Every structure is written in C-alpha cells, then in structure tokens.
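Hi F.,

I've been meaning to write this up properly since the lab meeting, where we talked about keeping a consistent format for the predictions we share between groups. The idea is simple: the sequence comes first, exactly as it goes in, then the structure tokens exactly as they come out, then a line or two of notes. No screenshots and no reformatting. I'm using this chain as the first example so we have something concrete to point to.
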Amino acid sequence: MVLLGGYEVAIGQVKSDDPPTDAETTPEDQATDETPEAESEPEKPGAPDKQPRRRIFKRIGPQPMTAEEREEAERLRKIAAKYGTDPTAIVGRLQLTSQYFDLPQSVQATTSTLRVDLPFRGNYLLRMDLPFLKTTDPDSPGMPNNRGLSDLSVIAGWRAYNTPEYALLVGALGTFPTASETPLGFGKYTVGPAVATARFLPRLDSFLIGLLQYQASVGGDPSRKDVSLFTVTAQVNSFWGQGWWTVFQSVWHVDFERSGKSSMVMEFEGGKNLIGRLGAYVRPGVGIYGRDVIGAYIWNIEIGVRYMFTSF
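Output, unedited:
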C-alpha cells in the first residue's frame, strides 16, 4: 500500500410459496392484478436513475455464494494471509525487498526496503516501511551518486468488514522526511487515506484486490515542491499447488501537482512458500505510459523474502 515512488528522482431462501390458483385468488387479489399501470405514479422528468449505481455496487461489493464457495473462499483467505498476499489480512510480517529501476534520462535506481507489520486486537494493523535508496546516472559520470535513507512510511489500518468472500480495510497513511539526502525523499510530511478490498472470484479460485491511497503534504521544507499523489492498484491474486502463488497487477498514479498527469505500470509476481510461513517472490514490471511521473519507470524487477506470523 505504500507508494514505490516517494522520491523526487521520479521513482512509489428467500422462501417462496407456490402461486395461488385461480380458485384460490381472492377478489381483492383480482382487483390488485387488474389495476392498470397508468394509475401508478408517473416517473418525474429528470429524476436520477438509481439503477446503474445499484448495479455497480452489486458487482463490486459482497456477492451471494453457495456453501461450497464460501468454504473455498475461507480456505484461500487463510492461504493468502499465510503467503502475505492479502492486504486486508490482519497478520504480522517481516519482509525485506530489493528493487532495481530503469528510469527516464538514463537514471538507474535501487532500493532496499524493510517492512514490518504489527497486528493487534484482531482487526487492527500497523505497517512501517523503511527504504534505503541509491541512484546513479551512467551518462553523467562526473555527477555524484545519491544513496541513503529515504522517507519512512507508516500506515495504520482497521479491518472494517470481514467475511470469507469479501473484506475491507480502511486506514491512514503518513510519510516522514527521513531522507538522508535531498533527492532521496519528498522533504515533506504527507498524510492521506488508504483503502484495501479483497473479493473472492469463485470461477477463478482467486481474489480480486483493489488498493486506493492518496497522500498530500502538510508541512516540511517550504522550499520543496508540494505533494498530491493518488494511486489505484488492481490485482488478481491466484494460488497454485505446492505452495505457489501469482499476482497480476496494474498500478495507476496521478500527480495533481503536475496538472493531473498520470502514469501506469503493469507487474507480475510469482512466489513460493518455502517452509512454514517463510516465502519468497520475484516481481518484474514495465511502464505503460507516463514514465516520468513519480512512481513510474521504464522497467523494474523486485525480489523479496517475507516471514508471516499470527496476530497477538
């Protein structure tokens, strides 16, 4: 849920009875049935059509399922929590990742991030990301490289809704200007909302996951540029035999400080549960458009190791 590009170097029954027969139909029923439609209240001109909204919510919200489907959803939810691929799961994590980015203007960057998730009281989660960033420019050998800590990111989340087939987590995101060098961070304090949803897809035995977050600067170095970033992530999380999982996702960034300029990247993650709650993964990605927007890149690759532990 954390932007890979927090850097200014352009990196973020109902029960139914049988109908009555004609002999059983009362005069009142017949009168009701024969009431002409013209007597119903006419629709007011210009009245808003609420049906499309209902259809949209019905499709993205919780869906009716059979007992077998609910059982399968519950089983896969537990697996996703164990593998660390469900952002709505309240489960602990120790994770170390390393990423390489090929950026515009020949700039290259690597970042190593330590992530710690601390669950508590069953439905609450505190996440902290501490990244170490290094940038180089092969086309400018005389220019110094930048390396050091980047901005610390913290998310506090509450799982507001939780069923085997659908879950919703809402929270608040904040970043702190802990970068050791100016180009390695925003130089600003930022805050904003963060939302994660996970919906079971019975036909695919997978989860459709959505992540939304917005962050805006609220203080810090007045000489640095303000921050106003919106990120939407959509992913399909699938599970395979022998402890394997895959995640296919697209990430869309919008920078409102640059007149709403946007970018999109596509990423594919393949992971393996190694032993117990320890797993590893690799995630290559490619930029689709807007490669100079914060959080975007030309291409990248990420590898990571994570250990998941239960709530306390």
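Notes:
The CA atoms of residues 287 and 298 lie 5 Å apart.
Helices lie at 27-33, 51-60, 67-83.

If this format works for you, I'll send the rest the same way.

G.
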